[in-house]
Amino acid sequence: MTQMLDYDAGTGDLENWLIRENRFDDRYLGKCETIFAQGNGYLGVRNALEEAYAGETRGMFAAGTFDRIDESEVTELPNLPDVTAVTLRVNGYRFHLGCGTLHRYGRTLNLKNGETVRQVEWTAPDGSRMRFEFRRFVSLADRHVIAAQIGVTAVSREVRLELESGIDGGVGNHGAQHFHAGRCRVYDGRDLQMLSTTFQSGVTVAVHAAHLLSRQAESALPVMGRRTLVQRYALTLEKGGALRLEKISCVHTSRDPAYAGRSGPLDETLKKDGREALDRACGLGYGRLLERSAAEWARRWRMGGVTVVGRNPYDQLGIRFALYHLTLMTAGDDSRVGIGAKGLTGEGYKGHSFWDTDLFILPYFTLTYPRTARTLLEYRYRNLYGARLKAKQNGYRGAMFPWESAWIDDGEVTPPYLGADIVTGESEKILTGLIEQHVTADVACAVRQYELASGDADFMDRCGDEILLETAVFWAGRAEYDAPKDRYEINDVIGPDEYKVHVDNNAYTNYMARFNMELALRAAQNLRRKDPERFRRLDAKTGFSASEPKIREVCEKLYLPAPGGDGIVPQTDGYLSLEPLDLSPYKDPKAPAKIGTAMNAGRLNRYMVSKQADLVMLLFLRPDLFGSETARKNFLFYEAHTLHDSSLSKCIHSIVACRLGLEDAAYRLFEESLDIDLGPGMKSSDDGVHAAALGGIWQCAVIGFGGVEAAESSLKINPRLPQAWEELRFPLVWHGVRLSVRVTRAAVEVENGGRAAVPLEVRGEKALAQPGGTVRVDLPRERG
Q1: SS3 letters for 283-308?
Q2: How many domains does the chain have?
Q3: Cys-Cys link to 195, which of 183, 212, 391, 715 (CB 3.0-4.6 A)?
Q4: What is the pLDDT of residues 655-672, one digit of tens each?
């Protein structure tokens, strides 16, 4: 049987740019709905097929439009009225691939320009042979525009063709409806308009759509239902006759940045702006709209593309797939919205932001699009409201960041329960929102990474320093003093490894908490020296000075798990005494068992098994903590005990393996990271892409194999190309200067495209990249 997904479909200028679905299988609709999803950071649209199928999940999402359907539930990103569904009938028979005869099928996502194209040849039950071509894209040049084009050809005989297309306000979030019934109107017999308002948050969404036909319909009738507004067309196609239908849609919401700060109902404004946008888009038509969007994609690829020359084309395509979806996750100009764990490609995790953004996704933007990175960190700053609230509710001062974040006023939005315990059958409480607290230090770490790479003093003045000071105040209060041992501990937490709950002294949490406090102490010292007045203002706001003696004491006496006699750092108290478990059934790459179906959380807590990178995550973020031999021992030990059941895990293990010279492991884990969404698991991505893993793929290439590190006084580059690669090229932005880096087996070349010199350290050799110049550092010859 033909392989369903083809990653080698592109040739010539499109080599390693195309992902092709070779055959239709309605068991796996979600896979391609997700990986073929389209968007621009403001809008995200799942690539559900035009014709309806049981099991499909249509989804269109606009950043920031969170809503709660009930006081007992948390806010989630609502599914907007749908514009992708189209019903086609041929001589009364509905076009559906489950009936009639399918002769040819293929659907392609072009990563280069963001367009999907589906080609189908099908015979209706009455013997009428038809040819269809479906095209669709979400504009990267105009965030409000979605465009589709359908071509229909009557191949064998004259047919009566009926089409029904419009706006469907009946979609919801897995059965939950977030909108009041839409307020609908038709203008001039062409323009469809639906305004819908969310129940709790009061966000109004305006959807406009229009259809442009290449030939006159014999009848055209607008039909308004309770939650639907459609146009019905009917016409006759002679044998060999063709019809082209263009559908242009525009989406605006009352939470758009353009309306920020405006009070009162915005219905009339949304109607006016929506109709004007629709008129402009219809005036351009599908072709010119696509050209404009493709030009913006071309600019993005020039600015942020990563090029790999090697023997496995899948590596290049996989990296491009990651960058494509990273582009879809954020518009980069609205500090009120973060990045959901599934981006804007599905309902998974309710559209909430996690630590995924700060440590997995943000580095790409920090080192490639620093303005976007700053906006994402400003989102964290604006979430200080919720962080202060959460700290207060838990009996602490300072800022304790929510484990899950949504709108800037929502605070902690982790659901209290999820599913049932497989043993007891009782509702399973979600503990992450209560005791997975390392996210607070993760945000501080992200602030520091951005400061190092950008030198953005303005951000630190407005936002960064306040985040550091107030999170340090939280940690000082969170640490518990153990008098007999004369030390502070952080007890009853969950570290990154979520198989281990209610643990004490998680090494990752303790080390990162101290790092957070050290950053704050240094920031306070610098502020007192350079800008005492601003420090006084921040101090009055954060209460830092009152907590400073305690912060210093905790920094000095906080227990930091150290290597034992065997060189292993205990992930948590008692981890090394847990029961051993044979993990081979769960690590079998051909038929891995799922440990979560074999035992519940209580049993998992007793075994020496980790879900994801925990101690290895610490090695990744803080490579200075331990010597290389200790790091190697710990990597090998924890890799053997980690199942990588989180998509966040393999990329981190790959990078650490790369730094330790474990080339085979590094490359294998990188390839397995590519497979998280693109691989053979046909149900793995039903709820949306794995956003953190996609950011991790970029980090594998640039930070791992490219060896990039943001240091205190320079940009370090210490590359280690895998044997499968001959060349790696990528852009960076360092302190506002755009650089182009080329790594081969012979040398590292850094071209400075900016106006300021950039200090470099390449393989330990210091250099200065002058404006307009190129620094070349030859690499030692590899042993034969």
Answers
A1: HHHHHHHHHHHHHHHHHHHHHHCCEE
A2: 2
A3: 183
A4: 999 999 999 999 999 999
Compute CA distances 96 → 52, 53, 121, whole Å.
Answer: 8, 8, 12
Residue 778 contacts residue 742 (beta carbons within 8 Å): no
Per the domain annotation, does 638 fall within a domain? no
Give the residue-averaged pLDDT of 624-642: 97
The CATH number for 269's domain is 2.70.98.40
> In the beta sheet, which residues pair with residue 237?
159
Closest CA to 196 of 234, 242, 277, 251: 251
Q: Give the residue from 233, 260, 286 where a domain finishes.
A: 286
Structure tokens at 240: 């060999």
Range of the domain at 775: 708-784
* HEC string for 455-510: CCHHHHHHHHHHHHHHHHHHHHHHCEEECCCCEEECCCECCCCCCCCCECCCHHHH
DSSP three-state, residue 131: strand
The dihedral of CA 23, 26, 31, 34: what is its sign? positive
- 3-state SS assignment for residue 586: helix
pLDDT at 784: 45
Q: Do 689 and 325 contact (CB within 8 A), yes or no? A: yes
State residue 438 phi and psi, 5-degree precision: -65, -15
pTM score, whole prediction: 0.97
Is 133 among the catalytic positions? no
In angstroms, rounded to a whole number, what is the distance separating the alpha carbons of residues 378 and 380? 5
Residue 438 token pair: 């390392």
Single out the residue of 320, 305, 325 nearest to residue 35, CA to CA: 325
Alpha helices per DSSP H over 491-614: 507-530, 532-542, 544-557, 584-587, 601-604
Measuring CA to CA, how many Å separate 560 from each of 37, 487, 758? 44, 10, 36
Of all helices (H) and strands (E), which one includes residue 375?
helix 370-382
Q: How does strand 758-762 pair with strand 715-717? A: parallel
Kindly report the CATH number assigned to the domain that includes residue 763: 2.60.420.10
Point out which residues pair with 233 in neighbouring strands: 163, 220
Indicate whether 377 belongs to any domain: no
Strand segments, DSSP code E, in 41-95 are 43-45, 60-62, 86-90, 93-94
pLDDT score recorded for residue 1: 52
State phi, psi for 40 to the nearest 5 degrees.
-150, 15
Query: Are the beta carbons of 135 and 49 closer than 8 angstroms?
Result: no
Residue among 152, 264, 162, 268 at smallest CA distance from 218: 162
Mean pLDDT of 199-212: 97
User: 270 in a domain, yes or no?
Assistant: yes
Dist CA 707 CA 35 (whole Å): 29
List the beta strands (DSSP E) in 139-241: 145-154, 159-168, 183-187, 191-197, 204-213, 219-224, 228-237
The catalytic position among 21, 51, 436, 498 is 498
pLDDT tens sequence across 306-335: 999 999 999 999 999 999 999 999 999 999
Encode pLDDT of 292-307 as tens digits.
999 999 999 999 999 9
Could you give the angle at which helices 691-699 and 649-659 cross, rounded to 10 degrees?
10
Identify whether 543 is part of a domain: no
Using an 8 Å Cβ cutoff, are 405 and 413 in contact? Answer: yes
Angle at 665 between CA 660 and CA 669, to 5 degrees: 115
